[in-house]
Amino acid sequence: MFGASADKVSFNQEFSDDKGYPYPLISDPELKLIKDLGILTGKFSKRVTFVIGKDGKIAKIYDTVKPATHAKDVLEFVKGLK
Question: Domain count of the chain?
Fold first, then answer.
């Protein structure tokens, strides 16, 4: 698991440390990955979750993120992957 953000490495490191995330955050200040994924809206990226299956293919895309339930929703989906 990893996250990605348009923020600089130093900001992402502080943010990740503060939140105690057990996974890395990719920094994409030039927006290359964000553009390649098609999630750039104006100057910002949409909050999108891509679940990658064991076969390396995208198993599900969450293009609407509801912060209150998102982690639970994704975890339930991932537990159901075979």
Answer: 1
Cα–Cα distance for residue pair 5/39, rounded to 1 Å: 11
What domain range is 32 assigned to? 3-79
Amino acid (one-letter) located at 74: V
Mean pLDDT of the chain: 90
Instruction: Read off the CATH number of the domain in which 40 is found.
Output: 3.40.30.10
What are the residue ranges of helices labelled H in 1-82? 9-19, 32-36, 70-79
How far apart CA 70 and CA 63 sit, in angstroms, is 11
Q: Residue 10: is its pLDDT beyond 90? A: yes
Helices and strands in the chain: count of H runs, count of E runs: 3, 6
> Which residue(s) pair with 15 in the sheet?
none
Alpha carbons 26 and 50: distance in angstroms, whole number:
14
Three-state DSSP at 48 gives coil
